[in-house]
Amino acid sequence: MAERLTAGDTAPDFTLPDDTGKDVTLSDLRGRKVIVYFYPAAMTPGCTKQACDFSESLESLAGDGYTVLGISPDTPEKLGRFREKESLTLALLSDRDKSVMTAWGAFGEKTLYGKVVEGVIRSTVVVDEDGTVSHAWYNVKATGHVAKLRRDLGLDRADGAS
Fold it and tell me: Catalytic residue at 47?
């Protein structure tokens, strides 16, 4: 079983290519809060719903000081097609060898349709300005996850102001 991150852990640093082939390094984002979410595959129904939810919330999340990074084992080329097809605005990163997913506890044994398989564990980790994990959720549901995340982080305000 992959070691899962918990609040207080130092987030493992990484450098991964985005959908344009440009490298993105987590430690370069120090001073900002970063939401790192891991998903199994671009252009599948659940992953598309989740990516669209994050994309639609990106402006308000950015207003609250968050950068969002979506990570999957897809190639940068496939991620580029995903971004274009769904008009996504968040950073999509490619972890082809799943080393970052493994280090973050987002790859390993999971139950799929009643069978234990090895694969990507849909997960979201929030990293604070100092590179420390503030929140970590594993086996999250694709649908409704962004709304739950906003609630858990205290970002939803009744008046809609940010």
Answer: yes
